[in-house]
Amino acid sequence: xxxxxxxxxxxxxxxxxxxxxxxxxxxxxxxxxxxxxxxxxxxxxxxxxxxxxxxxxxxxxxxxxxxxxxxxxxxxxxxxxxxxxxxxxxxxxxxxxxxxxxxxxxxxxxxxxxxxxxxxxxxxxxxxxxxxxxxxxxxxxxxxxxxxxxxxxxxxxxxxxxxxxxxxxxxxxxxxxxxxxxxxxxxxxxxxxxxxxxxxxxxxxxxxxxxxxxxxxxxxxxxxxxxxxxxxxxxxxxxxxxxxxxxxx
Length: 249
Prior knowledge:
This protein is α/β, with parallel strands linked by helices. The protein is 45% helix and 15% strand. It is built from 8 helices and 7 strands; from the N terminus they run βαβαβαβαβαβαααβ. It is globular.
């Protein structure tokens, strides 16, 4: 098993990419804290994984919740080796002029501030284990932004820049930091990204820009996360892997 003996936290893990990552990590031998703001769904996800998982309800934009998340994981499993900052949110695809201030603030709190908070809380625990891996879910939107999601795009650009800077600064502690850039995926936020109903006609418009001809799936992202968490990638840090079917070519 590729992650035998490892302890991981995955945020936004009740569904979508996060659940796929948590399930894959557990299948490869890791103990996993399934973290989500939705306590009920986090519990269901952890229960489906089995004895190697616990559920934690947390709003990753709140320091008290993040600190408690780290503490609960360490108490349950004895440490921390892998942190996946996957929780994220967006605004509906629309004019940049019509996104509310409340929506803007929430996007940056969940997508960007959360990484600041988890880093402060997790790094001391990773150091105790001799290092570790931090994986941030960014987006192709941070590399090739398009109209309609401007403020979300900016938040994911920040995640990519933070990833690279964190990698450089934390390398002496043997903590690797990498990002994953998914293309639009088959998750619960699909219609928000599309800004329209999920119909075959509307899907076709997005698929036209993806050379491999399909959207991303949770397992695609989980496979990339597994590689970045695996000790086999011990010399990989500061990268943002595009899992996009060629979207960014």
